[in-house]
Amino acid sequence: MAQHAERNITMVMDFYEMTMANGYFQNEEHPKRVVFDVFTRKNPDGGGYSIFAGLEQVIEYVENLHFSKEDVEYFRSLNQFPESFLTYLENFRFHGDLYAFPEGTIMYPNEPCITVVAPLIDAQLVETAILAQVNHQSLIATKTNRIVQAAQGRAVSDFGARRAHNMDAAVYGARAAYIGGAVGTATVLAGQQFGIPVSGTMAHSWVMYYGSEYTAFRKYAECYPDNTVLLLDTYDVLHSGVPNAIRTAKEVLEPMGKRLKGIRIDSGDLAYLSKRIRCMLDEAGLEDCKIIVSNSLDEYTISSILAQGGPIDSFGVGERLITSMSDPVFGAVYKISAVEQNGKFEPRMKISEVVEKITNPGRKQVYRIYDQKGEAVADMLADAEETVDFSKPYKFIDPEQPWKERSFEGFTAKPLQKLVMKDGKRCVELPSLKEIQQYVKYQLDKEIWPEEQRFDNPHRHYLDMTPGYYDMRMKLLDKLSNHKRGKI
Amino acid sequence: MAQHAERNITMVMDFYEMTMANGYFQNEEHPKRVVFDVFTRKNPDGGGYSIFAGLEQVIEYVENLHFSKEDVEYFRSLNQFPESFLTYLENFRFHGDLYAFPEGTIMYPNEPCITVVAPLIDAQLVETAILAQVNHQSLIATKTNRIVQAAQGRAVSDFGARRAHNMDAAVYGARAAYIGGAVGTATVLAGQQFGIPVSGTMAHSWVMYYGSEYTAFRKYAECYPDNTVLLLDTYDVLHSGVPNAIRTAKEVLEPMGKRLKGIRIDSGDLAYLSKRIRCMLDEAGLEDCKIIVSNSLDEYTISSILAQGGPIDSFGVGERLITSMSDPVFGAVYKISAVEQNGKFEPRMKISEVVEKITNPGRKQVYRIYDQKGEAVADMLADAEETVDFSKPYKFIDPEQPWKERSFEGFTAKPLQKLVMKDGKRCVELPSLKEIQQYVKYQLDKEIWPEEQRFDNPHRHYLDMTPGYYDMRMKLLDKLSNHKRGKI
């Protein structure tokens, strides 16, 4: 697929980024540094948290940002941009800094998981590709984690590629699913590219090709005696699939000293069938044969099947994971929060008739607040330059109830944003994918309240503010709300 | 982004395709030719039809299918495949034929929009990538078409890249949206790659950067006097945005002899605001200034805004289009339907306890049946080898009411599947993207019943069968249903 192999990700941008860039260039504003934040406004599926994913790909993208001759030629062909700007594009490289949460951090609405501090054009041009990457991977990591939680320790594998929204969605979706807790993927390129364990045995076509189900099973077992997993639902699970699987175990595998490793079903009532299959396998002495199920699974169907006692060892989850079917939009946005004026950052804020759409101005840091048990009780927004001293009781503001006097005492505060790119180059070593997966699991096991991890009506994690940050925000809000026609 | 530029789409496959391929290779079955069909089981969003899209990318993918040295090395590293098979992969190219509907064909459930006739391994290896491409593009084309229908002739543009499921979903999604009737896209790479018109003007950040809304508008108008479209909802649409836009028209553009081309709003009540804005613009003599709206639009919100008389000229549609949010899974499947035996194709069929999952066996053709007015009254499945003679009354079978005597009289029948690849090489000239868009529009305007184009409870298009095909299918179904344990 020529387009895939030769394409240039720099051009994955909204056209308005280029019209604005040229506008800034013509007005000679472009050397001025600005601050943009990436943040979400809600968690998917009404959940209590999201998982921040996609940072490694964001960094690779920003490092490689450049316009090829063909790209510049394309812009020239539109007859909207002067030659001076086109020449500027030819030599363009990203010269900004990126601050970000570590990949895999549990995040909450309105927290800047990425902050870009860069010259105006540099910061504007990366909007779309950063959002698409973070939105996609965070969505799939979060959805997968819900499914993994529902499976209560049983293995969950990504089987979604064929229903993914094109190739990237399959491959980066598999990466995100692994971050969210999947044990592996069926997608070969994701295995090759990211080292994710791959699995897969047979499709219905294998059985249909041979026509005879027993012949198909026998051929497969002869070829893969150490790893025989048979698909039972091509014709009739209980009257044909299970008997033929048992016969294969007895007549093909046992004479070789091998065991039938597993069976899979991909249709029908998975709770009922798995219970019947388990009995039939056990009666035949195949207690160690695993039962793997697939077919339109998600956290709700898995919970329901397990509540009915389905003796299932492993779930293959496809379309509802890889598209996050029940809530396929992760709405992270990219908003300007400060502009350099005379060497320091002046905060900027978007006000809106919708309260949730009012932004948090300024260059910020997010602290996660832990109690003595190490549990995360809240997060807190601060000015990035502020010193936050937790050695004595720390007074903070709950912005929804600012009149209440509150303080953290004996707690610890961990800053979540770290500098990851300096002047367009990465300046930290990134964790392995396995380490990211383990970091997610550690936070959910040890730090994040179980009450936030409920599917229905979860506890809302508080996002508090330091008194200094709260005051600055309120003053700016006052100023903008008093803004009258023509005044600014 | 290194992975994007260097990646190999051949490896976008499910691992079971490789375990099966090796199994066939070890059993020396691989030269045998088989038939696989791609078909859907339902239309998205409960609609009456789907749009077939993605064929051009499928053909490019199949033509370029090959394993690099690194790919073969990856399979070697898994220690599951013998050297003989790995050597076979090194030299592998696709040697089959593809039959397909023309891209943009209105299609219905259970119709083979693509049929692969190829040696066993060749046919098996392309399953996942073909499905992911067709599922994604058909989904977005169909969804966009619903949105375009709701807009009743007003322009619809794709603004979705940032919420797409990664880069491909943005770019191929824009292509599919154009097929479905969008007039353009905001995604630059889609414009560059496919020649789709791109549009875009300013984000809220432009206004927030300058702080003063009027200054921001003035700077933009000075830079783009022929194409000034101003975003009005950064602070307050009616008290600040509209007055500043009018002032820009009067004080900046009119002295240059230019007109304000348009305004955009991206939040708030779009019906109420657009009516108020229209009045204010008209009172200021800006009757020709267009109103463009965006913000979580889809076919339902657009219908509702227009029903309330919103005087809107153009819709920018993002997340709900690019993810097909209300139904993000297009469930096309890839099923084996025949196996070569002694030089001819023997039909294969998957039976299932779920009636909808029973497949249509054999190598087939789909005919679209037109009445004297040129309207498509039904489709009909036939054996690919059958001659269908419509010169006299043609008796057909409705498989859901096979006891009824029915015939087509004075109708015409057009075969929908055409040979598009022969022995792995394309053998037709593919239409331009614009031609595909026009083909979709022609069918919906002239051929497809309006009753099938309703959003709610649309008329169901019949899929009839020739008597010969129906008999063959029933005999095979009988045989498989009588199949008892151990018998096959």
TrEMBL record, chains A, B:
Catalytically driven reaction(s): 5-phospho-alpha-D-ribose 1-diphosphate + nicotinate + ATP + H2O = nicotinate beta-D-ribonucleotide + ADP + phosphate + diphosphate
Residues of the Nicotinate/nicotinamide phosphoribosyltransferase domain: 156-346
InterPro entries, per database record: Aldolase_TIM, N/Namide_PRibTrfase, NAPRTase_C, NAPRTase_N, Nic_PRibTrfase-Fam, Nic_PRibTrfase_pncB, Nicotinate_pribotase-like_C
Gene Ontology CC entries for this record: cytosol
CDD domains attached to this UniProt entry: NAPRTase_A (cd01570)
Domain Nicotinate phosphoribosyltransferase N-terminal: 12-135
GO BP: NAD+ biosynthetic process via the salvage pathway
PTM summary: Transiently phosphorylated on a His residue during the reaction cycle. Phosphorylation strongly increases the affinity for substrates and increases the rate of nicotinate D-ribonucleotide production. Dephosphorylation regenerates the low-affinity form of the enzyme, leading to product release.
GO-annotated molecular function: nicotinamide phosphoribosyltransferase activity; nicotinate phosphoribosyltransferase activity
Presence of the UniProt keyword Phosphoprotein in the record: yes
The protein's annotated pathway: Cofactor biosynthesis; NAD(+) biosynthesis; nicotinate D-ribonucleotide from nicotinate: step 1/1
Domain Nicotinate phosphoribosyltransferase C-terminal span(s) in chain numbering: 363-472
UniProt family annotation: Belongs to the NAPRTase family.
Role noted for this protein: Catalyzes the first step in the biosynthesis of NAD from nicotinic acid, the ATP-dependent synthesis of beta-nicotinate D-ribonucleotide from nicotinate and 5-phospho-D-ribose 1-phosphate.
Name of protein: Nicotinate phosphoribosyltransferase
Source organism of this protein record: Schwartzia succinivorans DSM 10502
Source taxonomy: Bacteria, Bacillati, Bacillota, Negativicutes, Selenomonadales
